[in-house]
Design a protein that fits this description.
Helix content is 46%, strand content 19%. The protein has a four-stranded antiparallel beta sheet, with helices on one face. It is elongated and about 90 Å long. β1 and β2 form a beta hairpin. With 397 residues, the chain is α+β, with helices and mostly antiparallel strands. The longest helix is centred in the first third of the chain and has 30 residues, at 2-31.
Amino acid sequence: MSFLLGVVLFVAALLISVMLHEAGHLVTAKRFGMKATQYFVGFGPTLWSRRRGETEYGIKAVLLGGFVKIVGYTPLEEIDPADRPRAFYRQPAGRRAVVIAGGVVMNFAFAFVLLMLMAMAIGLHVPGTATTTVREVSPCVPANAKAACSRGDPPSPAAAAGLREGDRVISFNGTPVRNWDELRHAIAASRPGRTVTVVVDRARARVTLRPRLASSGGQPFLGMSARVVGEGYERVGPVGAAAFASRAIGETVGGIGRALADLPAAVPHLFSEDRASTPGGQVGSVVGAGDVSGQIFASDSSWQDKLVLYLSLVVSLNIFLGALNVIPILPLDGGHLAIVAYERARALLARLRGRPDPGTVDVAKLMPITYVAIFLLIGLGLLLIAADLVNPLRLPQ
């Protein structure tokens, strides 16, 4: 039930994000007197609609997006002569640019508000201190650090030697360890296959264990995780929250840029065990994001951790929608903005030469490129959906 709740909440967040994006186009278009005839969530057959004024609002059967129909969004449309003065393509370039960018601005604004609310209501995460006390003993030796246990994996050295949750490691192979870093470095300095001596404090009694280190991904592996103390959340005021939100959006945009740039190289690994080892391999579809949301709510984390992770996922979704739409290719918003910028640059050049304004761009000439872009976007989306179904991403434990 917790997993299903996470999936449902992600779908709800996706629909809200799409609605806000399209509302950014709708509100600005109406503000400038353009005629918007439809505002719908989803595609396909209409499930419900209601007309208010000249705009029909409604919900369609396939909830995988949404749209706003603005009269004359391209010069290719047939327009009623009565509506021609209010057609989108006849408006000044500045107004068209504002309407086109309205959806992107709305997504980034929503992400900013969510981040501020997180910082003020839940708080910023304060990392704790990792100790030498055992939080959990791994039951197996995984293939690599990010892999989960599967049938046939050998038991971990810690489990085989009898290490228990709550044990506090005092020394490793004769060397006293006072903190997690010292213990981690001591393990890393050992060789796989070597039997070591581990002394632990168990209920105020010293117990000596002799595990034989295994190899995981070519590195020595014991099979324990550290208990963390002092971890929590600290609320901040509006100024600190705004600074945090700005910084987080900048970091997320940078991360998305790196992931998209790495995606072509990561495509061959989408169906392999090392999918998540590169930024591009961590890119997923809405199916994968829904699965991750389900994992968040099905985990054993605290309610603060679950809420922060879920809201962070929603923030990332909105920033991704905004960042993706500014790419200057049709049919994305960035492609339409690029056309407006080209028209203004061409008009300026014509004016400097003493020639008349060439007018709007012939969009029909760009349609072949648009079809290629649509084909590539759909193909990539289907590929990511297949990868998320066959080789889903997993939250780090």
